[in-house]
Write a structure and sequence with these properties.
By secondary structure, the protein is of the alpha+beta class. The chain is built from 13 helices and 12 strands. It comes from Marinobacterium maritimum.
Length: about 400
């Protein structure tokens, strides 16, 4: 004779408490879906109401793609200056907002990330951004020497040296007034904003203001330190082509899906090389900046297929289901939601673009993807550069 799973007393207690437990679960209900993101009419401010105690604020400064070593040096110089200004103004940030933002560099963007218990007032934010534009304490000559040395060390690595080469004539010596250029670089109209938190209203960004008259200051000559061609044990070949401007959800979907699909044949070819015990590797830099993006693909080793004709052919039979799943998996990461909204803000796309993205990805077939990539590879800008293996 088997014993009952529950005793009579246990059954009585279960009957007594079960209705209350069901009622409690009904009242709690499922986790509510997050409120949709919204955007201001000029698409400079994106915001979302969330059930959280604090505010997460991202101030975005779009960065164009640097197309020369001199432009790379200038971006490095001003980013370092901005970091020093953040350190100098830290007491003011803490006094007004209770926290200091962290400066992050992302493809096409500089981001000031800040978490605060209270929603900043528009005038507080305007005052803080104004303070960042006033680099009165900076020693620009010393700062330039520092970033020149950093860039020099960075470019001594073979792949970084190759990525810093562009098919242009020798660059003329560029002189600029760093304080004036920095001031205009941080103008109010250049900033964008994404904000999540308990507030139901967006935070306004300062409107365009007239720059005050500027007295000429000390000129700096931006000239990267010459770096000799580095030695490399395995040959490297750079393929570079443009990305079109992203102006719609369908164009964003094309770019994201192509990035995932392009990696499939490259990974398959690399696996075959390793089976044949051939050295090799690849690195893909897919950067969707404004006004147009840029792809830099570095292939390591010899005897890769002729990329310009081989790669589009491979995309005609790509596993797009796997590529779509990879994009959607990135899209669904909870810790990356605001970073995705930052991407929408960069390209000033509608705030509901992420909700439309799965359907846009599903509408792309292999032939469309092949034609899209082929058009980029046939661009006049497409070029290759090589770094041969050292003897």
């Amino acid at each position: 004779m088997t014993r009952p799973f529950l005793s009579r007393r246990q059954l009585s207690l279960l009957i007594l408490f079960l209705p209350g437990l069901i009622l409690l679960l009904t009242l709690i209900g499922p986790e509510p879906a997050p409120a949709p993101w919204q955007a201001s009419p000029d698409q400079r401010v994106y915001w979302q109401s969330q059930n959280r105690a604090d505010y997460r604020l991202h101030l975005l400064l779009p960065q164009p793609q640097a197309h020369s070593a001199t432009e790379q040096l200038q971006q490095r110089l001003f980013m370092t200056a901005l970091q020093q200004q953040l350190s100098r103004t830290a007491p003011l940030w803490h006094a007004l907002l209770g926290a200091q933002p962290q400066l992050r560099s992302r493809p096409g963007l500089l981001v000031l990330e800040l978490q605060s218990d209270d929603l900043p007032a528009a005038d507080q934010l305007a005052r803080l951004l104004t303070e960042l534009r006033q680099p009165a304490e900076l020693d620009w000559h010393a700062l330039l020497q520092r970033v020149q040395a950093e860039q020099y060390l960075h470019r001594q690595q073979p792949e970084h040296w190759l990525l810093s080469q562009f098919p242009t004539a020798a660059e003329p010596l560029q002189s600029l007034d760093p304080a004036d250029t920095y001031y205009h670089w941080l103008a109010p109209e250049h900033w964008q904003l994404t904000l999540s938190g308990p507030a139901s209203q967006p935070l306004r960004l300062a409107a365009t203001e007239n720059a005050p008259p500027h007295l000429p200051g000390t000129l700096l000559s931006l000239k990267p330190l010459p770096v000799p061609e580095p030695s490399t044990a395995t040959s490297l070949q750079l393929h570079r082509w443009p990305l079109p401007r992203i102006e719609s959800v369908s164009q964003l979907a094309l770019s994201l899906l192509a990035r995932e699909a392009v990696q499939q044949p490259l990974s398959a070819a690399l696996a075959q090389r390793r089976q044949a015990q051939h050295s090799g590797g690849f690195s893909l830099h897919w950067v969707a900046t404004l006004p147009r993006g840029l792809v830099s693909l570095v292939l390591q080793g010899d005897d890769w297929p002729e990329l310009r004709t081989w790669l589009p052919t491979q995309l005609a039979t790509a596993d797009l289901t796997t590529a779509r799943h990879a994009v959607l998996a990135q899209l669904q990461r909870p810790d990356q939601q605001q970073a995705w909204i930052d991407l929408l803000a960069l390209h000033q796309l509608p705030a509901d673009s992420l909700a439309q993205l799965p359907a846009a990805l599903g509408a792309i077939d292999a032939d469309a993807l092949k034609r899209w990539l082929q058009a980029q590879l046939e661009s006049d800008y497409y070029h290759t550069l090589s770094l041969p293996a050292s003897p």
